[in-house]
Amino acid sequence: MPKRLLATFVAVPIALAGCSTPADSANDSVNNPPAAQDTAAPTPTTEEAAAEPANAIHPLGETVNTPGGSSVTAYDYRVITTPGDDQEGVLEVKVCVGDPVEGYGGSSVLTEFWSIEDAEDRRFEAASSYGENDEVAPILSYESNVAWNDCIRGWIVMDTDDSTDAQTIRYFNSMAEEPGIEEIRWELP
């Protein structure tokens, strides 16, 4: 049975804020070929990148490529005040879906794969409901349709506020079919 991969996508394992497609996000090397490399500093192969330790924590803004040709990036996390004077945490992410996967008609990105972690290992998930917000746009819905080899970038409203001691952003796709990309973390400044 196929599984979802990144953090916000439909019927395919990838999810934006959680992609749901086996080929979660587009391969950056296809759309943005690498610049000429110095022979003294070779670029890691896909296999080497997949061998990265599961506990690696990436700097905010760093794109993580998956073995299936997708990628995911966490750009920003902040607490904002809503028009109703409530505070809520928001997370800016980008998910790129890779090549079409046989057996899948389309792909989508799901916010359910994203969370915020505090210093005591508590996890705060994407909010199940939220109001309008003028400070950040676009706000990603629970599931956003995304074409193969395309990207989506936007904000996810989180179940956090200014009392949350946010330490890391976590992308965890329990339905990922690609080994080594089930969990990705970014450190918050």
Notable characteristics:
4-stranded antiparallel sheet, 5-stranded mixed sheet, mainly beta, 189 residues, globular, disordered N terminus
Task: Present the secondary structure layout.
Blueprint (H helix, E strand, L loop, with lengths): L27 H4 L14 H5 L6 E3 L3 E3 L5 E11 L5 E10 L10 E4 L3 E5 L4 E3 L17 E4 L4 E8 L7 E7 L10 E5 L2
Parallel strand pairs: 1-11
Antiparallel strand pairs: 2-3, 3-4, 4-9, 5-8, 6-7, 6-10, 10-11
Describe this protein's structure.
The chain contains two helices and eleven strands. The chain has 189 residues and is mainly beta. Strand 2 and strand 3 form a beta hairpin. The longest helix has 5 residues. The N and C termini lie far apart (39 Å).
Order of helices and strands: HHEEEEEEEEEEE
What is the straight-line distance between the termini?
39 Å
Report the principal-axis shape. globular
Name the helicity range: under 10%
| Beta-strand content | 25-35%
> Could you describe the largest sheet, including whether it forms a barrel?
5 strands, mixed
The strands making up the biggest β-sheet line up spatially as 1-11-10-6-7
Number of helices: 2
Q: Indicate the multimeric state.
A: single chain
Content-based structural category? mainly beta
Find the count of extended strands (DSSP E, 2+ residues).
11
- Look at the structure and give the mean pLDDT: 75
| Unreliable residue runs | 1-51
Rounded radius of gyration (Å):
16 Å
